[in-house]
Amino acid sequence: MILKQIEINRLFNHYHSIIPFTEGINVITGENGSGKTSIVESIYLALYCSTFKGKKREEIFHHFKPNYNSVKLETDNFTIFRRFDKPEDWLLYCNKRIFGRENITKEIEKSFISRSFFQSIVYTSQDRFLDIVELSPSEKEMFVNKILNLDYITNFAKLLTKNINILKAKKTEIQFLMKKLEASKEERKRELIEEIATLRTKIDEVKKELEELEKKKLSIEAKKLIIEKEKWLKDYWKCKKLLKEYEILQEKQKEKSNLLLELKEKKKTLEVEIKNLKNQVEKYRNLLKEGKCIYCERPLEQKDYERYEQAILDKEGKVALFITSLDELEESIESLKKELNKIKYQLDKLNPYKIKSNMLKLRQKCLEVFPLRKLKELVKIEVKESEITIFRKYEEVLKLYQELEDRLQKTKWEYELILKKSIKKDYQELQSKLKEINKKIDSMEDFKKVIVEKNLAGEIRWQALSQTGIEKIFEIFDLGKLSFNKNFEFFIDKFPLHLASGSQKVATALAIRLAFLNLNKTEFLILDEPTMFLDKKRIEDLMEMIVLAYSKKLVNQIILITHEESFKEIAHNLIKVEKDKEGAKIEIL
């Protein structure tokens, strides 16, 4: 991962700064308080949404009001943007995927660089450059644990200790129970017999009280049931009456339907008669019009005309009479239809299926309760208290009765258990449990020995450091042969590091960082004033080593914050930071 550019808006003492980074050596220079270290703090803020110096929110925004305070970091792998006055606008664009506010920091630590690795290896704060070689062995252990995230092993060892202590407490408890079992069981038997007798006496007393209350309760309920049952019976007979009405209406409907059919038949007959008569009238009219007999075609005489005209009048009279009868029939038919519709409406409204269903329900209800005679006998029981008092008292006494019964059953069960089971059997069960616990404790103790006594974390640290290739990196600096042991003691040409020259110490400090960068495949290193407290010779050596480290591709990008003018000569990208009224001013030289 190579840093390409950071854009800072209204953070620390930067109003609006855009700082580009290139592959190679990036040197940041400027006066104290101009905003050099703030650039690195902004990189950390973009990655992890916090500052490695533990600054509060007011210190980050103290120069500017909370209005569009943002940081945008671009690398060759991803782009990250955080706007602190609007956290909902945070985003991480990586591998053609966009991550929202909740997952940004998690994805950075998971896929690119962890917070602890950044703080320990990637970034070197002012005057701390040589700490990595001057720490005590135990401090170096903690340092490497942080880099390799080995704290979980220590935490697991603590968890094992805690679980071992819990099992030991259980072991003590079982041992106590075993001692208790060794005592005589006769005393407990006597206690249980006395308790059973007492409980039985109390149960008898409570049972009598419960029976009295139950009679009173039944008496109260009987009064309600009498009223309910009488109502149900009334509703039942009402349903019976409705069913009878339904049957009468059905019969009436049948009669009317038959009459309607008869009338419709009469109507059809009349319609045929009218049609025939009309045909005959038409026939006679045609004869009169032509004046010839339809059979022999002889001319009609006067008497024939009179006869046919009289026949036409008779036929038309009959047609008029039949039409009147037909109209009367249609009126009767329509009237019958209305009556039938009315009957059908009444039948639909009665709904016999619903009536029968209600009757069955009412009958069932009546059968479920006592006969009225039995109910009336219950009502005779004298009840002076109110219904609420009786029911509440009944519930309380019933609850007490059930509790006493439960206690009696448990006491009897315990007594039977004592009679059936011998102390020896219980003792053997506890011994078996104790054996299992001892096995678990031994197993955990063995595991703890592997972690603590055999130094599992130390082995992992040793393997990790052995795989970094630190000796080869140190050989490139040509300052002797570097070696180390499992206690993190470093030697140069078999001499302890604290006896080495200043240049060798500087080389070792740089080599360790470069080695761990290589192990984690991180491609950039940030050095913040690494020359502080170094003499001129060590500063020159460090400068040469930085150039050599880049030229040999031990690291692809170095960001160096310094006051030393000589470092400008080795810069591939020189960034000058100056103080300004509005904030830090950036100049790329």
Structure, explained:
- The chain is built from 17 helices and 15 strands.
- The strands form 3 sheets. A 6-stranded antiparallel beta sheet has the order 2-1-4-5-6-7, covered by helices on one side. Strands 8-12-13-3-14-15 form a 6-stranded mixed beta sheet, sandwiched between helices.
- Helices cover 65% and strands 12% of the residues.
- The protein has 589 residues and is of the alpha/beta class.
- The radius of gyration is 55 Å and the shape is flat.
Sequence-ordered SSE layout with sheet pairings:
Layout: E1 3-11, E2 14-20, E3 24-30, H1 36-48, H2 57-60, E4 70-75, E5 78-83, E6 91-94, E7 97-99, H3 104-111, H4 115-122, E8 123-124, H5 131-134, H6 137-148, H7 151-182, H8 186-290, H9 302-350, H10 352-368, H11 372-379, H12 387-420, H13 423-453, H14 456-467, H15 470-477, E9 482-484, E10 490-492, E11 495-496, H16 502-520, E12 524-528, H17 536-551, E13 557-561, E14 573-578, E15 585-588
Parallel strand pairs: 3-13, 3-14, 8-12, 12-13
Antiparallel strand pairs: 1-2, 1-4, 4-5, 5-6, 6-7, 9-10, 10-11, 14-15
Helix pairs in contact: 4-6, 6-14, 7-13, 8-9, 8-10, 8-11, 8-12, 15-16, 16-17
Concise synopsis of the structure shown:
With about 600 residues, the protein is an alpha/beta fold. The protein has 17 helices and 15 strands. The mean pLDDT is about 75.
